[in-house]
Amino acid sequence: MDWLKNLVKSLPLDTISEYIAELVIWWSHLVKDVPDNDLPFLAYVGASILVLLLLIFVVRVIPRPIGGMLWVLAVAVLLTPGDTLTGAGQIAPAVAGVAHSALMGDMSGAISAFLPILAVFIVLLFVGAIWQILRGVIEVNITKAKEKTRIQEQKRLLEEADKNAQKS
Q: At what angle do helices 94-103 and 107-167 cross, to 10 degrees?
């Protein structure tokens, strides 16, 4: 439990709460002219983005691969679209369909509602893996270029030192 205490101590909670207060004020000004029918969707998307931004602070403390997978899981759970179960073709978070089906005891419905979340999770993990591979290749190329530049500079300095030694 020491890691949890260290996590809480390392988070700038006062700064985070000030930012959240400013965000709530900004959000209220932003949505004051939004129709009532669109407000729940915008509130959900805004809250999801806020949760994901706050999760970045937690992910920084967790080891890199696990933190990245946790963030990808949160994105998949929060932002995967689903059906409202009304048959009207409205969009709702897929996790709401999973929760509704599980609470109603319909496990096959819960599993079928969970499949889009799982698909998004797998795709995001794949994109993350590609990103890490590309990042590794870029870092290796940058390191090689720096090393090559350093070697060329040392070679130039040695040649200048040889020329100066021959002149004397």
A: 140
What type of residue is 167?
Answer: K
Q: Is residue 42 packed enough to be buried (19+ CB in 10 Å), middle (13-18) or exposed (0-12)?
A: middle
**8 Å CB contact between 134 and 126:** no
Return the structure tokens found at 66.
Answer: 């696990």
If you average pLDDT over residues 125-148, what whole number do you get? 95
Residue 96 near residue 149, CB atoms below 8 Å: no
Query: Which residues have CB under 8 Å from 11's CB, separation 6+?
Result: 57, 58
* Residue spans of alpha helices (H) in 35-167: 39-61, 64-79, 94-103, 107-167
Domain range annotation of the chain:
2-119
> For the chain, first and last CA: distance in Å?
70
pTM tops 0.90: no
Q: Using alpha carbons only, what angle is made at residue 71 by residues 69 and 76, rounded to the nearest 5 degrees?
A: 90
Residue type, position 86, single letter: T
Confidence grade of residue 37 (pLDDT, cut at 50, 70, 90): confident
Q: Report the residue count for the chain.
A: 168
